[in-house]
Amino acid sequence: MSLHIGDTAPNFTIATQVGDIDFHEWSGDSWVFFFSHPADFTPVCTTEMGRTAQLSGEFDARNTKALGLSTDGVEEHLKWIEDVNDTQNTSLTFPIVADKDLEISKLYDMIHPDESDTAAVRSVYIIDPDKKIRLMMTYPMSVGRNFTEILRVIDALQLGDAKRIATPADWAPGKKVIIPPSIANEEAKDLFPQGWDELRPYLRLTEV
Ligand code: BEZ
């Protein structure tokens, strides 16, 4: 199945190491950071699982629940989490989908046959409280994800929703943002009374 930004994230019911979850019910009114892994007991994945657990306060601050997926079973997940906690000095509590039959990996297009027929690549889905897919990223098995970027895109999406802005290249919280071309100057005066720098009619920067 091929998914796109704006699609409703497909629902599923599946076992995790903290019990069965119905994805839509479990996510509730939260944003979701859904990220897949090729297998338990592998080095890159171990660091990524640990980093996510270490950042639990940052995800909570963004009303975002982490949901991992790895193409192994619940028993393996439970044993692996002991290693993650030990080696990454953390305490992992978020659910990890036990996808040993690749059911959810296939549903979310996480199997890329030139990488592997039997294990998921490193996909990221950011899903909003309306269950819409807002961002997708795909990494190969050999490259660990950048969690600063993951938090940054959640910030950008949430700020964009709240203030009707877009974010420029390398934007980070506190930096200037873009007034989208779909907002004419007349409306922009109401939305951004602080004013803006107009570098071009289509490139207006403001502070929020
Ligand atoms: C890893 O997590 O280190 C890994 C997993 C599968 C293939 C390559 C690396």
Topology record:
Blueprint: E1 13-16, E2 19-22, H1 23-27, E3 31-37, H2 43-54, H3 56-61, E4 64-70, H4 74-88, E5 96-98, H5 103-107, E6 122-127, E7 133-139, H6 147-163, E8 177-179, H7 185-191, E9 197-200, E10 203-206
Parallel strand pairs: 3-4, 4-5
Antiparallel strand pairs: 1-2, 3-6, 6-7, 8-10, 9-10
This protein binds benzoic acid (BEZ).
The site of benzoic acid (BEZ) has 8 residues, from helix 2.
Brief account:
The protein has 208 residues and is an alpha+beta fold. The protein is 32% helix and 24% strand.
Name some characteristics of this structure.
208 residues; alpha+beta; five-stranded mixed beta sheet; 10 strands; 32% helix; 24% strand; binds benzoic acid
Q: Mind explaining what this structure looks like?
A:
- The protein is an alpha+beta fold and 208 residues long.
- It contains seven helices and ten strands.
- The strands form three sheets. The protein has a five-stranded mixed β-sheet. It has a three-stranded antiparallel β-sheet with strand order 8-10-9, with no helix packed on it.
- A hairpin with a 5-residue loop joins strand 6 and strand 7.
- Helix 2 (43-54) crosses helix 4 (74-88).
- The structure holds benzoic acid (BEZ).
- Residues 38-39, 42-45, 141-142 line the site of benzoic acid.
